[in-house]
Structure formats: C-alpha cells, structure tokens
Amino acid sequence: MNFDQMEHIVTAAKEMSITKAAEKLFISPSGMSQSITQLENELGIKIFNRSKQGVTPTFEGKIVLSKAIILLSTIKELNKEIDDIKNRSSNHLKILTAPTFSAILQETMIKYNEKNSEITFDVVEENPAYMIQNFSKQDYDIALIPCTIEELKKEKFIGFEHLTKGHICIAVGKKSPFYSYEFVTPNELTNEKIVMYKNSDYKTLQKISKLNPKNVVLQTNRSSLLYELVKESQAILYLHNFSIRNRPIVLNGDIKIIPLKEETFFDLDFWLIYLQSKGLSTLAKDFMDEFKLQFKNSI
C-alpha cells in the first residue's frame, strides 16, 4: 500500500463515489478505480462494495480505511514538522552553552537582534561535564564549552574551533578580605563561604580549587542573586576571567574579579563545537562573528 492508494481509498470513502473522489484528486475515474482494484488484489480483500449508487466500505475495508487514515495523518504531521524545521533553521539558532558564556551570549543576542529582528534563539544552559554527550544527542546548532582538546578529539562526530584560553577566578565584594588581593591560592579559600551557579562543573572546581562542599551556602541559576550576595557579604563566587568583566557591578568596583593561582594560573580552553554532519550554517557563522566581537571586547 503506497501513499496514493491510501489517499484514493480514504477520499473514495468520504465521497462515497469513485467519480467524485477522482474529481477531487484531479485524476481520471478509471485511474482511481484501477488504483483501488490493484490495492484490493495486493491485500487479497475487497475494500468497497461498488454499485450504481456509489461505493461503501466492506467490513475488511473499514479496518483498512481506519489504518490508512491514521497513516495519512501521521505522514502529514511529519511533513509539516520537516517543513517547520527547514523554515526555522534559516532564521532560528538552537544553542547549548556553559554558564560562563551566558552574559556574553545575552549581549550578543541583543545586538544581533537589533540588526536581524526576524532571528529567534533557543538557548539551553548546562553543566559542562555533560555538554558534549548531550550535544550529540540533541538537535543543537552550536555549543559553547570549556574543555580540553583531548576530550574533543575523542568525539568522532564533533567539529570544533578554539575561542580562547581563560582561567578560573573568584568574584568578591568589598566586604571580602580578598578584595585587595591581586590573586588568591586554593589553600586560602579552604574555609570561605561559597555561592555557585547551579549548572557549574562542580567536580572540576572541587578538584582544582579544593572546594569544600560544606561551605556552599547557595546554588542557583539566578545570576543577579549571586552577584548581590557576593556584593553584600564575604561569600565568593567561582567563575572565569571573562564571564562578567563588562557588567556594571564589576566596572563600578562593587565586585572584583581575582585570578586563582598557585605557581601559575588555572587555565582552561574554551571552544565552539558543532556537528560535523551539519557543519556551521550561514546563520550560525554570522552569529558567531558577532559573538566573537563581543567576546573579544570582554577579554
């Protein structure tokens, strides 16, 4: 049973006439009749009782028609979804990002939308520890992620482009004893109260900074709340050097960004990744040009 045959029998049943169904589908009555007869022969059943008054489904025909109606509906829904995806892909970007890029990404989207008002975005923020595996499973256009080149090379289906090398820092307010420091060591932070982004890479931070889980007093993705707590208390926030550098709360000195350092800074590489099978669309490339400009200004 093919699509045309399903459409022929469903239309004939609705019209209760092969002739009327043929007119509706813009084919000849003989062609319609032959199509239905061929299907009946293939299935080995009689779908319609035919008479001068028209056609009526047989018992077996009603069963076939019920399945054909479901299949036609499913195919139409599928075609609509495919069309929506095609239309959306030309003016829509689905982005997966680590929390560290959120502020710069937001600034980029605002500026990009000023010049391209028809473009829409779907942004998902996620813990970097799970980003690569989830990126491959979901239909994202691009992802912005901190990780090592070794991690990326393990992934056969991911293309990548290096954005920058940054380092881990803390954000503190004027009430913090570290506000006057040029850098801090992990050992100096052992007993400090900590506020964190909920989607932060907790395990990496714990390994690098000797973070004590008992000292985490708040975890949330409300960045404004995190910044306010840092500003008004002695709590610290782990982040990367460029994450909020251009925010007013940093520029006016209410919060200071201080590098984490032992013999050297704790460096991380930051990447743009995409599926090799899809590549970067024209829209994704254009948007990333704007993002890189914003990113350059922030570092």
From TrEMBL:
InterPro entries: HTH-type_LysR_regulators, LysR_HTH_N, LysR_subst-bd, WH-like_DNA-bd_sf, WH_DNA-bd_sf. Residues 1-58 form the HTH lysR-type domain. Residues 68-95 form a coiled coil. Transmembrane segments: none annotated. Keywords: Coiled coil, DNA-binding, Transcription, Transcription regulation. Belongs to the LysR transcriptional regulatory family. This is HTH lysR-type domain-containing protein. It comes from Gottfriedia luciferensis.
